[in-house]
Amino acid sequence: MLTPIQNLTGCILTLSLSVILVFMGGMFYANPSYAETKDRIIQKGDLDCGVFPDDPGRSAINDEGHWEGFYVDFCRATAAAVLGNTEFVNFIEVGATSRFTSLINKKTDVVMYSSTWTIGRENKYHVEFPVVYLLDGQGFMVRKSSGIHRISDLQGKRICVTANTTSHTNLVDTFKARGYKADIIFANGDSFFRGSCDAYTADRINLATNRANRADNPNDYTILSEMASREPIGPMVRNDDPEWSRIIRSIVHAVILAEEKGITSKNIDQILKTSEDLEVLNLLGKTGDIGTQLGLDSQWAYRVIKAVGNYGEIYNRYFGLSTPINMDRGLNRLWNQGGVLFAPPFK
């Protein structure tokens, strides 16, 4: 038989163990930010989406006063999925530094920008890249009359690059590894077109966008075929909300899968009526519970595709060969068309 002291000691130990377990459970499972982003967006009724201003083809205000561009469409797609309407978006203008701080300070819910996914950025800024929506590489734009045809011709030249970007660090690393020297100038494409530099380096789509929209005579410039890096580009979110991260990732995958399955903004209603493809039916919410798993309704992906189209429609609308940017899709083709884009099975 236990003495009163032993009984009391046992109770104290049991209570202490319970407190420890509750505390540890809180450490591992209690995350006050979990699901906060989506719920806050629904409560306030709009999405705060970070975009770079005045960047035609990617994110800019058109002549009618409306935002448009590749990244803008993904902002609208997110609003369609979560709020049911593409117009419920506040476009927050961000730059090279504020694209990160705007997330940390909760001024934006997601940033749709030409941001390269790096492990260092995720650690430094406490952000997450849920998915890649563009695969690019760093290139160099020069004047056709310059006599510069390859990276080795840039030795001793003046090269413009935007500060606080991976383009700068890649440039330094590439030239150091090859033993090249150059005069690096922190400036943008406008400085290059004014003659401040012999070359301008950035992601190749960035260069093509600048050439199309900022050069007086776009045909006077060429982008070298050599690339200095690989650039996986994707949307950014805070790293404290796994549900929100899954939602953003699934929106991008939904438009990629839609292209693979031949679903467009124009034929989606007909396909929904006639398709017997289980993955298509799961995607469009006729079967399965993917919406529930994401914390959304069953029609979330239908609204996205109906509003902005599939991935190919979005890309060709802003970057395709019939646009001023005139960029071949390259790696941004589907996996079964010579590219690397694919979505996980919607099952």
Overview of this structure, please?
It is a single chain. With 347 residues, this protein is an alpha/beta fold. It has 2 domains: 203 residues, 3-Layer(aba) Sandwich (D-Maltodextrin-Binding Protein, domain 2); 92 residues, Periplasmic binding protein-like II (D-Maltodextrin-Binding Protein, domain 2, 3-Layer(aba) Sandwich). The strands form 5 sheets. A 5-stranded mixed β-sheet has the order 10-9-11-8-12. The chain has a 3-stranded parallel β-sheet with strand order 4-1-5. The protein has a two-stranded antiparallel sheet with strand order 2-3. Strand 9, helix 6 and strand 10 form a beta-alpha-beta unit.
Q: What is the fold-level CATH name, i.e. the topology of the largest domain?
A: D-Maltodextrin-Binding Protein, domain 2
The total beta strand count reads 14
Q: Estimate nothing, just give the exact number of structural domains.
A: 2
Query: How much of the residues is beta strand, in percent?
Result: 5-15%
Main sheet attributes: strand count, strand direction, barrel closure: 5 strands, mixed
CATH architecture of the largest domain: 3-Layer(aba) Sandwich
Describe the strand arrangement of the main beta sheet, using strand numbers. 10-9-11-8-12
Low-confidence stretches: 1-33
Terminus-to-terminus distance:
59 Å
Q: Which descriptor suits the 3D outline?
A: globular
Proportion in helices:
40-55%
Counted by DSSP, the helix tally is 14
| Helix/strand order | HHEEEHEHEHEEEEHEHEHEEEHHHHHH
Rounded to an integer in angstroms, the radius of gyration calculated over CA atoms is 24 Å
CATH top level of the largest domain? Alpha Beta
CATH H-level superfamily of the largest domain: Periplasmic binding protein-like II
Mean pLDDT score: 90
The helix/strand class is: alpha/beta
